[in-house]
Design brief:
Layout lengths: L12 H4 L1 H15 L4 H15 L8 H10 L3 E3 L7 E3 L1 H16 L10 E7 L3 E8 L11 H12 L12 E9 L1 E8 L12 H18 L4 E7 L3 E4 L16 H13 L5 E8 L5 E4 L2 E4 L6 H16 L4 E5 L4 H14 L2 E4 L5 H11 L7
Parallel strand pairs: 6-7, 6-9, 9-12, 12-13
Antiparallel strand pairs: 1-2, 3-5, 4-5, 7-8, 10-11
């Protein structure tokens, strides 16, 4: 008789490793607390009290000591903080974000964005073609070329001509420069929805993806609120939403300036936002309007989208809000830029970013 058999649960070695389980939770909480270790440990202690994460032989004090011994945290007296995260913690968070969102990825050769073009590329294909002026000797398919010579001219008096030569096609693997824009305006935590934490995870995962799989590519990360500024990779886990409006124009201008200095042919902007620009810089002050879509702000934003289109820089917008009037604005912005837009849930945001990044297979030959 086929049925369900119940047996005693025997925990695996991983389940028995209290430190490992606590570390997983600690690193997740640390993203929510923007790197505040004291707050993260306080949250973890409350979870321990409620769900019994530790036992009589291993308590929270032991866990904190092991974090220090293994180099995840170090003591600090800055700004009243008892501990601060180390570079090891930051690397671990990025790697785990990558595994969580994109799955485990192996290293590959540098410059790994495949295109539909063939020529002087990086990776040989199985396709052959006739020799053309400009082909190099290392592209010649020797066996096939010798075979052609024997068929065409016989084997008694060997002769190899240009018409006998066959060339192995290579695939281009392009180099791409990307700027990732993250909205840190107040609306990213309004309405009971935390949008900034998934955005930070995506940024860390994308950075780790590029460092491990596409090391020839470049990734710059900027944040935008009332103003826009560039942040370092190590700063991403600690980003916080401020009491800011959304100056999308400032973010796009900074992104364009960064990409202008890059020497790569392929340039693109990824923008994670709730979609509503509400602020402009005017002189030393700001023009702000949080109600609806202010036409003055919208027109400036669309003008910037058009400038980027003329510069050949597409903007891919990852929209994390579902308001119909905001989606209409994003469609207008996308049409003006000739870019793309994804109306993503927070849960699927990472997958959308990953798929679009990998799908970029364009190569402009100059």
């Amino acid at each position: 008789m086929i049925g369900i058999r119940f047996t005693d649960y025997i925990p695996s070695e991983d389940d028995k490793n209290i430190f490992k389980n606590l570390l997983n939770m600690f690193l997740q909480i640390l993203i929510f607390t923007s790197g505040d270790i004291s707050e993260a440990l306080s949250w973890l202690t409350q979870l321990d009290q409620r769900y019994g994460l530790t036992d009589d032989g291993y308590g929270m004090g032991d866990f904190i000591q092991e974090l220090k011994d293994k180099g995840y945290i170090e003591e600090s007296n800055e700004n009243g903080m008892l501990f601060r995260p180390t570079a090891k913690t930051e690397r671990t968070i990025r790697r785990r974000s990558l595994e969580e969102i994109f799955g485990k990825l192996k290293k590959s050769r540098r410059g790994n964005h495949r295109t539909h073009h063939t020529g002087f590329g990086d990776e040989p294909t199985t396709d052959l073609r006739q020799f053309q002026f400009g082909d190099t000797f290392d592209q010649i398919a020797v066996t096939e070329s010798l075979k052609n010579a024997q068929v065409q001219h016989g084997i008694s008096d060997f002769l190899l001509t240009e018409d006998d030569l066959e060339i192995i096609n290579n695939e281009y693997k392009t180099q791409t420069s990307t700027v990732l824009m993250i909205d840190i305006s107040h609306s990213m935590i309004l309405y009971g929805e935390d949008r900034i934490t998934p955005a930070k995870k995506v940024a860390m995962a994308l950075a780790e993806l590029i460092k491990t799989r596409y090391p020839k590519d470049t990734l710059d990360i900027i944040v935008f609120g009332n103003d826009s500024w560039q942040v370092e990779l190590r700063d991403i886990p600690y980003l916080q939403v401020g009491p800011f409006h959304t100056n999308t124009v400032a973010g796009l201008e900074l992104a364009a300036d960064i990409l202008r200095r890059r020497k790569t042919s392929n340039k693109q902007i990824f923008m994670i936002t709730d979609g509503k620009p509400t602020c402009l810089k005017e002189g030393i002050g700001y023009y702000k309007n949080s109600f609806g879509l202010d036409r003055k702000i919208v027109n400036k934003t669309l003008n910037q989208a058009a400038r980027l289109r003329r510069a050949g820089i597409p903007v891919t917008t990852f929209m994390v809000a579902r308001d119909p009037y905001l989606q209409r604005f994003v469609r207008e912005f996308t049409k003006t830029n000739n870019g793309r837009a994804f109306y993503s849930s927070l849960k699927g945001l990472g997958e959308y970013v990953f798929e679009d990044y990998i799908r970029n297979r364009r190569k402009r030959v100059t």
